Amino acid sequence: xxxxxxxxxxxxxxxxxxxxxxxxxxxxxxxxxxxxxxxxxxxxxxxxxxxxxxxxxxxxxxxxxxxxxxxxxxxxxxxxxxxxxxxxxxxxxxxxxxxxxxxxxxxxxxxxxxxxxxxxxxxxxxxx
Length: 128
Prior knowledge:
This protein is of the alpha+beta class. Helix content is 35%, strand content 23%. It has two domains: 1-48; 53-128, SpoA-like (Surface presentation of antigens (SPOA), Roll), CATH 2.30.330.10.
């Protein structure tokens, strides 16, 4: 029945949109096959998510500046942030807080040792 509804909707769309709709209907059909009641999506169905690139960044602090102060910055200028020395850095994934940690040096490169990872409930709260 869903395939028939998808076909009707596809008739009113452009060829590219119709192809996308058909591909989406196939994914929905694949998800339904082989699942009994009460079973969630299996690993096969979410494996494609594992290759999605994410932007991971670490924030050492923030500050607010006036444009005139920003324009006066030069080599050797110091910008003071709102965080104290020793305070945990925030680890952001796609600009959403997921963890906190401390700065470490590994093979002459900076890194972050995670000290606190947000719970799934906290991460969902930050998405809204």
